[in-house]
Here is the input.
Amino acid sequence: MEIRKMAFFSALPAVLGLCCGWTGHAQTPAAHKTENVIVVMIDGMRWQEVFGGADAELLKTPGPEALDAPKERAAHAQQLYWRASPAERRQALMPFLWSTVAAEGQIFGNRALGSDSHVTNGLNFSYPGYSETLTGIADPRVHSNDNLPNPNATVFEWLNARPAFAGKVAAFGAWDVFNGIFNRERCGFPVNAGYEPFTAIPATPELKLLNELKAQTVRIWPDEAFDPLPFHTAVEYLKASKPRLLFIGLGETDDWAHSGSYPEYLNAAHLGDSYLRQIWELVQSMPEYRGKTTLIVLPDHGRGEGADWTSHGEKIPKSKETWMAFLGPDTAALGERKQVGPVTESQIAATIAALLGEDYHAAVPKSGAPILEVLRK
Ligand SMILES: [Zn+2]
Here is the structure.
């Protein structure tokens, strides 16, 4: 604990030296409280819905005929998520984000208010987005969604190699390509993705049931499980093993969007928000985490607008636009950020490390610098 604090403070002068906006207590920095970080990524979730809620035009579009009762689905989504104003609509869609995080944390990416968040990889699709976010580097060698071992180490792997974090890192995801993104063969910590049963710890009744559901539920997407499976598996792991750094990758938002089903995309976003609340309330009930855990939430890329909302990629330049949210004891309660400098996904790796008192950016200079805006209290 003391060693971690020392490491954080020794990193502070370099960090603060870059920060022209720092006007606080340079001689006596506020006590650093974060000991644990939970990162939740919501695949391809657009900033447009995060800040404005459900889109009026898209709510009118019938979903794919392959889904039963598309008109009824659209009507139900209208009832659940349509409200008179954008503020009410976003509250209806993501109530935890717009109550707790907006009141106690920070949310970047509302371009209407002068806040820009984006990926820098130029490709605007999943593997490059996750890799940029988790390694801090937009590496041109990472240019496909193939399930190949990441040539770069993630900040998760980098921290797991340090004594204070060894055995205290884990990653769970709906998409089986997280095995490649985290480089499971090399990284040295548990990575559980897709439909694979989780057997790295002794089975609890809940894990046993989750593993059975992974084997038995219908597989709409061969490479991606429904979000409840990785989420609840991660929760069981958190309760049993109490990791200091935990990743949860949710994928349904992207899959439903690609299939053109706006109601299911909204439902997936709403479920993801409920998972943020569940995990936040869970950690606040545990002495290992209460008051010393930071939650980071973001997507891996954006999507197009209008008819292009279903897609993303190099040919849809606006799909580089993202958003990001932070909630924890070292992040000032500045809420929805306005008129603030741009932030990029490549800064997340160093920000995770800085929150934990480690200087990843110095060790990996190609990585983005930490986001100082969320490190001041
Ligand atoms: Zn994606």
User: Anything to note?
Assistant: The radius of gyration is 20 Å. The longest helix spans residues 262-284. Confidence is low (pLDDT under 50) at residues 1-29.
